[in-house]
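Input (Molybdopterin-guanine dinucleotide biosynthesis protein B):
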Amino acid sequence: MNVFGFAGWSGAGKTTLIEQLIPRLVARGLRVSLIKHAHHSFDIDKPGKDSYRHREAGATEVLIASDRRWVLMHELRGETGPTLDEQVAMLSPCDLVLVEGYKAAPIPKIEVHRPALGKPLLHPGDPHIVALAADAPLPGPLPLLDLNRPDEVAEFLCTLMENGR
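Output:
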C-alpha cells in the first residue's frame, strides 16, 4: 500500500485538502483509506449507548457492526498505542493510505502551509516533505502546489505513485 502524509500547523487546511482529495482519487479508481492522528483525548462513542457502557465497564475492545459499517474501539488502559506502521497494517488492503498529522513520520509528505498564519515552514527540518501546498507563493527548492486547486494536488500524488514513490 502506498502511504502518503500531510503535515502542517493547525489551521493550515490539512483536513479540508484531504476531504477534497479523497473523492478525486476515488474517481480515478483508487481505493483510499485514512489515518488521522489526534493530539488529544477523543471519543467516537456516546455516553449512554450500549458500546459506551461496555467500555466503561472495562472491556478492552468493543466492535460495533451493522449492515453499513463497523468500528472497532480499543481502550489502551495505560498501554502504549500502536505505531503508524502498526496502524497501517491494521487497515484492509487499499491503493493509498493518506495520513494526517504524524509530522515526524518518515513517510513522504506534502506540507500544507498558509503564510498568513505566521508559522514557520516545516520542510527545512524534514527531508520527507516532497512538496508544499500553499495559498501564496513561497520560495524554495520543493514543488509548490496551489492549496486551492485540489485537482493539481491529486495529479501530483498520482504521478508520485506511478513513479514508485
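The two ends are 11 Å apart (CA to CA).
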